[in-house]
Amino acid sequence: PIILGIESSCDDTSAAIIHGRKILSNIVATQKVHENYGGVVPELASRAHQQNIVPVVHQAIYKANISKKQIDAIAFTKGPGLVGSLLVGTSFAKSLSMSLDVPLIEVNHMQGHIFAHFIEDANRSPITFPFLCLTVSGGHTQIVQVNNYFDMIILGETLDDAAGEAFDKIGKLLGLNYPAGPLLDKISQEGNENKYSFPLPKLNGIKFSFSGIKTSVLYFLQKEIKKNSNFINENLNDLCASVQKTIIKALIKKLKEAIHLTGIKNIAIAGGVSANSKLRTEVLKLKESDHCKIFIPKLEYTTDNAAMIAIVGSIKFEHQKFTDLSASANARYKI
Ligand code: ATP
Ligand code: FE
One GO cellular component from the entry (predicted)? Predict the structure, then answer.
């Protein structure tokens, strides 16, 4: 089938066309309005979605070189996310499904991040069940055991901040614009990651916590700035690299525990933070150290995109999992 996927859960408006498991187009309009606020402003996000959605969908159809009439179903993000943002995509998907008279498929955004691994790609071997997925994004940090398409268990989650949120909030302390994650990654390349050390959380079981690292960076900066008001500027590279090392260390530690707990050796990473260069390097090391098979998503499928919504749509279509027009957005939709 040919499916249109629509994603509008946070601050990216995106539309994609998939044919079977092959992506024909994936258009993402990233909202710039939030840059100077240090985070996403929900009211501004829904307004921007409203402006972007029609041109983004048109462009996806145009770029895929298909006509609207060829669309067999419409997949949309039901949640989780910001309710005002979700409502734009949900309403648009419902209206279009009525006017084209094609079925509607609701998609969980976090399942989308994981399912990006099922997108057909000639350059990598397909992922096989069961696998563990470390999903690290702006709002979530989870280790999910994926037994089959619609059989997955969350083995553990974060107790407070998500990994991406930790990158963004600590980046903000260091004076970086939102989203700070990609910038912090880039600046870290020039830094010494062993210059400063921040404590890792001590947690039993598959659990994450990042608010302690954030607080310890805050107190450390306050102390150093008292001695030298230019401390951050003079040491930005080393500070970024040291923070990045700490966050990634915390993630890998729990991923290893999950591997030992379950005995599962197929390991995937997903979500915006899976774009991080240090995380990619460290996860690949599990090949040697733990005899794992590692699956890393293509960069364009890490941060929010509609290709990942379209692939869930395509697989749900195969299993005839449709939804009716009474579907509504759910900000706290669970996988
Ligand atoms: P969720 O998926 O939990 O609803 P989200 O959709 O807002 O949250 P994503 O778009 O998946 O999150 O990811 C965005 C996050 O990824 C941001 O916090 C951003 O800073 C982080 N991120 C993106 N690239 C990198 C990178 N190279 N290094 C570290 N973090 C990164
Ligand atoms: Fe996301």
Answer: cytoplasm
Q: Which residues pair with 335 in a beta bridge?
A: none
Pocket mutation for ligand 1, best pick of 137, 160, 300 (most atoms within 8 Å of C-beta): 137
b/e for 208-221, b at 16 or more Cβ within 10 A?
A: bbbebbbeebeebb
Instruction: Tell whether the model's pLDDT for residue 226 goes beyond 90.
Output: yes
ipTM: 0.99
Per-residue model confidence as pLDDT tens digits over 63-99: 999 999 999 999 999 999 999 999 999 999 999 999 9
CA of 64 to the centre of ligand 1 (A): 26
Evaluate if pTM is beyond 0.90: yes
3-state DSSP percent of the chain in helix, strand and coil, to 5: 45, 20, 35
C-alpha to C-alpha distance for 129 and 127, rounded to whole angstroms: 7
The whole-angstrom separation of Cα 158 and Cα 211 is 10
Which ligand gives the minimal distance to the CA of 82?
1
Question: Within a 13 Å sphere around the CA of 104, how many CA atoms are in the beta-carbon half?
Answer: 22
Find the residues whose C-beta lies inside 6 A of ligand 1. 9-10, 80-81, 109, 113, 137-140, 164, 167-168, 179-182, 185, 271-273, 275-276, 303-304
H/E element, 147: strand 141-148
DSSP secondary structure of 51-93? HHHHHHHHHHHHHHT--GGG--EEEEEEESS-HHHHHHHHHHH
Residues in the chain: 335
